[in-house]
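SAMPLE LOG
Freezer: B-3
Tube label: C17
Construct: single chain, 147 aa
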Amino acid sequence: MRVWLILALTFLAFGCERTDYPASTDSQQVLGNWRLVEPTSKFSTTLTIEVDQPSGGTISGIYSLKLTGKAAVNTYMATARLLNSETGSLDVDYAGSTKIGGSVEEMQFEKTYSANLDAVNRYEITDKLRLYYEHAESGVLVYEKIK
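STRUCTURE (predicted):
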């Protein structure tokens, strides 16, 4: 009986996947390739975040970031300034996208996605990247890291 109890406790301690990742605003963790998972959509949407080299990267503690990706049909680009890495304060400036046409549903998704991305003002990282936005509506864009 004691052996079964030890085995059961060992399984519980080591056999479970962690789901309570601590929230972080470490600016280095935002860099990389991401895939949008929320809001759910049938359109594959990606986001790549890099240090914006032409602007020099870091200026007085403010990071300049380059955001690129693919939404339903078009490739998009934006820049972001990391204002405060302790609070995750971020200012995104949506620059635009290619002008390839698609279905009404695809174009509506891209219009909503670009408006939400442009309104991002804060980020947070757990096991996912969360970009919080505020404009006509408040919400969050949730991404998983692409490995």
